[in-house]
Design a protein that fits this description.
single chain; about 50% helix; 5 strands; 12 helices; alpha/beta
């Protein structure tokens, strides 16, 4: 069988790389001659579909800017002292919380693996073709502060951008007390995503301790009210930190 150069060029122009690869294989391998046109065409479509899905997954993972892009639900370790609820984690990994626009609060001391678990949930969401964004709270507040001081409307554009993120992962949540301005920024973000998207909060403190860190009681009440009622809470415990467990040095 002879390759048709015009067909190759057209497939390349249409960016059908999977179909082009399958076409070349079929035209140079005699084993395909005994197959029907329908079966051969199906193989071409299957490879193109698979290639595109894989490319989309890689784009989603890259754009999420994960701290650990190799984290996975399958590799979460359930040491007895961590007291992790495996059934709950597997339930959440199915993506039901994303469909229902619920949140996840990961609590635990520094080094206990909150960030890894959050990133594992994020990558799992990418596998289900949700768009995800990972960011540390100090970075998020810096971004909002800088945009607020500009007169080009970029602050509202950033709020709208975060509104569209289907899963937002905020690490280092409320490590320090916030100013009134920063608490107001957070309320803007939380309000824009209310019941339309999901957020994972990684915190060293239980939500009961968030109130004083948010400053103004009215704003603190508004933020907590919008977060806690639709959230799953996971305590990431551990007598030995994950850093100590694997001898990781800061």
């Amino acid at each position: 069988m002879m390759l048709n150069e015009q067909t190759e060029v057209k497939l390349a122009e249409l960016k059908l790389s999977g179909m082009l690869e399958s076409y070349r294989e079929q035209m140079t391998n005699k084993e395909y001659q005994s197959m029907s046109f329908e079966d051969r065409f199906n193989l071409m479509v299957d490879l193109e579909h698979s290639r595109r899905k894989n490319n989309k997954l890689q784009r989603l993972i890259k754009s999420a800017n994960f701290r650990n892009a190799s984290a996975s639900i399958e590799d979460i370790e359930y040491h007895p002292d961590r007291n992790l609820d495996k059934n709950l984690i597997l339930k959440l990994a199915s993506g039901t919380y994303l469909e229902e626009h619920h949140n996840i609060i990961l609590m635990g001391a520094s080094g206990n693996g909150k960030t890894y678990i959050a990133n594992a949930f994020g990558i799992q969401a990418c596998r289900q073709y949700y768009n995800v964004k990972y960011i540390r709270l100090p970075e998020l507040l810096d971004e909002l502060t800088i945009s607020k001081n500009q007169a080009d409307g970029s602050f509202r554009k950033i709020i709208n951008r975060y509104k569209k993120v289907q899963l937002l992962i905020i690490d280092e949540w409320l490590l320090t007390n916030l100013s009134l301005e920063n608490s107001t920024f957070l309320l803007e973000i939380i309000e824009s995503r209310l019941k339309t998207a999901s957020t994972i909060f990684c915190s060293q403190f239980h939500p009961e301790g968030w109130h004083e860190k948010l400053g103004t009681p009215q704003i603190a009440d508004a933020i907590l009210d919008r977060i806690i009622h639709d959230s799953y809470q996971i305590l990431v415990d551990g007598k030995v930190s994950m850093r100590e467990r694997y001898g990781i040095r800061n």
